[in-house]
Design brief:
It contains no helices and eight strands. The protein is mainly β and 96 residues long.
Length: 96
C-alpha cells in the first residue's frame, strides 16, 4: 500500500442470504477511516461487526450510515455485514 496514502476506495457488499455474515471486502485495505451505508433500496436493517455478527450488532437502516476512524490504521477485511433480508447491500468508502 506504499505510495497510496490518502486514497479513497469504495465498494458494494451484498448479503445474499440473511443471517449469514459476509466479509465487507477480501482485500487487505489498511484504512484510517471508513463509512458504511445501508443501500437505499434495502427493505430492512443491515448489521456491521466482526465474523460473529448477529442482529444485536451495529444496526444500519436503509440510507443511513456508520463512520469509523482508526488510529492506527485497521484492516477492513476484518469487518463483516449481515442483513434481515436476502439481497440487501451496503455501500462503503474507505481512506487508505
Amino acid at each position: 500500500m506504499a505510495g497510496r496514502k490518502g486514497k479513497i476506495v469504495e465498494g458494494v457488499t451484498t448479503v445474499s442470504t440473511a443471517g449469514t455474515a459476509v466479509q465487507l471486502t477480501s482485500t487487505d485495505y489498511r484504512a484510517s477511516g471508513i463509512t458504511i451505508k445501508g443501500a437505499r433500496a434495502n427493505t430492512n436493517a443491515i448489521y456491521v461487526g466482526d465474523s460473529t455478527i448477529d442482529n444485536s450488532s451495529g444496526k444500519v437502516f436503509p440510507d443511513q450510515s456508520l463512520t469509523f476512524s482508526f488510529n492506527p490504521s485497521h484492516d477492513i477485511s476484518a469487518i463483516y455485514v449481515d442483513a434481515d433480508t436476502n439481497g440487501n447491500k451496503v455501500e462503503w468508502w474507505a481512506v487508505i
